[in-house]
Structures are given as structure tokens and as C-alpha cells.
User: What shape does this take?
Amino acid sequence: MAKIFRRLAIGAALIAALLLLLSGPGTRFGLWEYGTGFLMMRIAFFVGLGAAALALLMLVIPKTRVLGALPLVVALALGLGTAYLPWSGVQKVRSLPFIHDITTDTENPPAFVAVLPLRVDAPNPPEYLGEEVASRQRESYPDIKTVTLEMPADQTFARALEVVEAMGWELVASEPSDGRIEATETTFWFGFKDDVVIRIAGTAGGSRLDVRSKSRVGRSDVGANAERIRKFMQAFQG
Assistant: This one.
């Protein structure tokens, strides 16, 4: 019986790890919907936690520990590690606002134009929801603001385009006359499509730079859009 429970702990830990590893790539390559991927992560959490608990129980009981501690230690570590990743993701979601549209200009956000056909079937509409979203953004991401530059608008545009290409985003539109650049970034793990629009406008002393990033799916972006804008601004000014 002890050997059966030992194999169960090890097998459950391996299954949990496999579910976690497949959840994102399977979604990215279209094998299942993102809801299924999230469900796999949830199952991985409970199975991993159960495997860790069983392994720990067998380690503290001398009669079962003498059968071989190393596999149980591996099952404990693998189970806990697998359970930790979904748990930490949930904690991060809970710590951030449930928004998925971030912009440096909340009063007059840059508008999507060229990416609109790409978002036809997207659950999240391209329109900005106004103060409902803006107030949450200001509270959680006060650093996301318009950048005013002494650089002429044409130079700002050229520099912004260089950064977009350097960051590996998929360029959708580049309109110098409108001061507008649109691009799409695909997230690494789940392959989510997030759209970006960059707006450059001339001013008396140079130009102003605004960026907006919006997810196509999901109520919460887990801070991805704000982080994307931060990285763009850092690369632009770097």
C-alpha cells in the first residue's frame, strides 16, 4: 500500500507539472481555447498541492520514508513548485485593477484605426471606456503619462518606429502624416494578442508622445499593458 501511495505522489506531481507546461503553449498554438488553458492551470494547482501533501505525509512517517526519500522529496518540490505558479498568478491578478486598456492620455487616448479589422472577433471592444477605466489606471499606474519632448515630431516618429521594430512587435500601420503607428504584440506563454497605437503630435517646443496598449481578450491584463508601455518609453529614451 505504501508503494502505491508513493507512486501516486510522484505520478500526480508529474501530471500537475505537465498540465501546467501545456496550458499556455496549447492555447498559443490553437489546440484549445484560453479558458481551457486557465482550467488546466487550476487543475495543476490542486493536483500539485495534493501530490506535495501526500509526499510530505509519507516523508514524516518513518515506515514509508525508508522505502526511499529522494523520490518523495522530488514529488514534494515539484508539486509545490507547480502549485505555486498558478497561485502567484492569481495573487498578482487580485493585486491589480481589472482593466485591460492602458494609455498615457486618459482624457484623449490615441484611437485604433488600422488594427480595427484585426479586432472584429475580439471580446474586448476597441473603444476606450472613459473615466471608468481612467480612474483605476491613475490609481494603480500613476507613472503612465504623456511624454513631452524637445525633439521635432518627424524625429520622434522615426525613433518610435525604430523602437517598435527593435521590440519585435508586428507592425500594422505606419502613418507619418497622421503621426500614428499601430502594432501588435503576441504574449509569450498563452499567445494573447495585445494591440498598441502610438501617437506623435507636434508642439511649439518639439513634440508629445502618447502610447496606448489594449488586450483583445480578458478582463484583467495582469499589468501587461502598463509594463509594455513602460518598456517602450524606457527603450525610446534609452
